[in-house]
Write a structure and sequence with these properties.
Helix content: 25-40%
Structural class: alpha+beta
Distance between the termini: 32 Å
Low-confidence stretches: none
Strand order of the largest sheet: 15-12-14-13-17-18-16
Number of strands: 18
Mean pLDDT: 96
Bound molecules: flavin-adenine dinucleotide
Shape: globular
């Protein structure tokens, strides 16, 4: 078995992805890279994993856990502990490349049923053993670290089945550890779709989507995960919470909502009921548009969302920098069509791409798309066909593989995202750009990809050469300044990645003291011994390892 750090930090199926020639050109151009820079692999992480921190679980505790799950479903070797010590946050990937396993659990345990989870949680609460629920490990917020040790609860190994598709209620009930493709394949074969397609779709679970409060790429039409959940079952140290699948109720609070965004801090979600939708792949209508400026594109997007004639499912705008890079890496830069666009006033450095899909019955799609085209035309946009949208859809999961080869080249690459109202969108966008422009040799791309009547998200991607020998601090300082800028100018801490430990330090100042007190009281009720994902998640408790921020 490959027990290297590299095998842990690499994305997805672990294939060695290469940088395409046009991307190489861009790197040469923006960062001044020479041929030598492309030959050397920086911090490749090829060493065998070693965990220095000794496990703290006592033999009798291990024996009890073994008696619950069986010998094959508890492991304590270094590689497994390291593998379950992290998600895919840039800082975690960098640590692994530096041979650093900062916060490993003591053991990895894979329960086989809801009842086994109950036994484990009850025991761990009595024994004060931390428990970190683990799904697909695609978290980008440091939410899976185990700074206080304990057990990582692997929910993907056994708790990964569809329990029921109700064609009458139009819902699906699943175990929390099911991965996106298994869920979607079964639904599609029954004529349905879940409608939740995060970029991490292939390697994330239904439980993780809910616990981190995610959004899929077609969320403008299908909704964010909180719009999809109907009911759930969760094991907490204070007992099992099982809610019913009523369409709506007026019985006080909806308790299941407390678990959406709970990031493993209240309990383990074991079962989930989600709304499902008709699957109409052949009837998806799409369109790409181009605008002369970001402001124009945003205004047209707002008008579409507020017109009430029907919504797109996928709805995106790339800002001028992201649009320029799409032209360059997609091969359209300086092409005949590019020259024509420039002549029409769609100039590089200013122009913006907009992508739209509408999914549903053909007549409906036709109607909505026609309306959108009219709104866009009136707003100064121009229809440029459907090819670019189809190309984007084809590579929507594979682009996640580019981060590893970029890091191999010593390029820091990470993303941040926020929710903004229409009133604050331009201010947050321009302030973030102004902040990043102060760092030399930095590529900064922004897009909008989740859109609502009263606002949208902004999604920031940055690329910049790492500071050799000072990689961790350099990133931490830059990242902190960018989060500060976003929040100070009216953005939320997160729209769909969650908070984890990375954004936890901002929670109290962002939400306010009273709100934070309420969250902590809820945590105390469900988890009085603080065993559920302890050590800083969501800012509910202190995080000990200050250097990991
Ligand atoms: C390349 C890439 C692209 C991404 N794109 C998107 C995107 O488009 N949209 C989006 O929303 N997110 C995206 N993410 C972030 C991440 O995929 C999501 O947060 C996802 O929902 C996490 O699911 P997971 O199964 O991997 O959970 P994990 O990473 O394993 O866990 C995430 C959190 O949920 C908790 N948790 C997991 N399962 C349970 C459970 N059953 N009960 C209680 N707590 C649980 C964990 O303790 C942890 O706090 C992306 C990440 C990567 C690396």
């Amino acid at each position: 078995m490959d027990s290297t750090y590299r095998n842990i930090f690499k994305w997805g199926d672990k294939r060695e992805e290469h940088i395409a020639p046009r991307m190489k050109e861009l790197i040469r151009d923006k960062f001044g890279y020479s041929d030598d820079d492309f030959r050397e692999k920086r911090l490749p992480g090829l060493e065998q994993v070693r965990v220095d921190k000794r496990p703290a679980l006592k033999p009798r505790q291990l024996d009890f856990i073994r008696s619950v799950v069986g010998d094959d479903d508890i492991v304590t070797d270094d590689y497994s502990r390291a593998r379950f010590s992290c998600g895919k946050f840039y800082g975690e990937l960098l640590d692994l490349r530096l041979g650093r396993v900062a916060c490993p659990p003591d053991a990895v345990v894979a329960p086989g049923s809801h009842e086994e989870v109950e036994k484990l949680i009850s025991y761990c609460s009595t024994e004060h053993i931390p428990v970190i629920p683990v799904g697909g490990q695609s978290s980008v917020t440091g939410a899976l670290k185990a700074p206080e040790g304990g057990i990582a609860l692997d929910l993907t190994k056994h708790l990964n089945r569809i329990l029921r598709i109700s064609t009458v209620n139009k819902t699906v009930t699943v175990q929390a550890g099911i991965l996106g493709p298994s869920l979607e394949a079964e639904l599609n074969s029954n004529g349905y779709t879940c409608g939740h397609f995060p970029q991490s779709f292939e390697y994330s679970t239904a439980g993780g989507w809910i616990a981190a409060r995610g959004a899929g790429q077609a969320s403008t039409g299908y909704g964010k995960i909180e719009d999809m959940v109907v009911a759930l079952r969760a094991v907490t140290p204070a007992g099992v919470i099982e809610t019913k699948d009523y369409p709506r109720t007026a019985q006080g609070w909806d308790l299941f909502r407390l678990f959406i965004g709970s990031e493993g801090t209240l309990g383990v979600i074991t079962e989930i009921t989600l709304r499902i939708h008709n699957y109409n792949p052949r009837d998806t209508a799409s369109a790409a548009f181009i605008f002369r400026s970001f402001g124009q594109a945003v205004e047209a997007m707002r008008k579409v969302m507020q017109s009430e004639y029907g919504k797109p499912h996928l709805f995106r705008i790339s800002d001028p920098d992201e649009t320029d890079i799409a032209f360059r890496t997609g091969g359209s830069h300086n092409s005949m069509s590019d020259k024509l666009l420039r002549r029409l006033g769609f100039r590089p450095g200013e122009r913006c791409l907009m992508f739209v899909t509408v999914e549903g019955e053909r007549d409906y799609n036709h109607f909505v798309l026609k309306k959108i085209k009219t709104t866009v035309r009136k707003g100064g946009g121009m229809f440029i066909g459907t090819g670019a949208v189809k190309k984007w859809l084809d590579q929507r999961y594979s682009s996640a593989y580019i981060r590893d080869p970029l890091m191999d080249l010593g390029i820091m690459t990470d993303t941040l995202e926020t929710a903004v109202t229409w009133e604050s969108l331009m201010k947050v966008w321009s302030s973030a750009r102004a902040y990043v422009s102060r760092r030399p040799k930095t590529v900064f791309m922004v897009h909008i990809s989740h859109v609502y009547e009263n606002g949208a998200n902004l999604y920031f991607t940055f690329l910049s050469p790492m500071e050799k020998g000072n990689e961790r601090d350099d990133f931490a300082t830059f990242h902190r300044g960018l989060v500060d800028t976003i929040v100070e100018n009216g953005g939320s801490l997160s729209h769909h990645h969650g908070v984890g430990r990375v954004l936890a330090p901002w929670m109290e100042s962002h939400l306010g003291e009273s709100s934070m007190k309420a969250l902590k009281a809820i945590k105390r009720h469900f988890d009085p011994e603080n065993i559920m994902n302890p050590g800083g998640t969501l800012g509910l408790t202190q995080y000990r390892d200050e250097t990991d921020r």
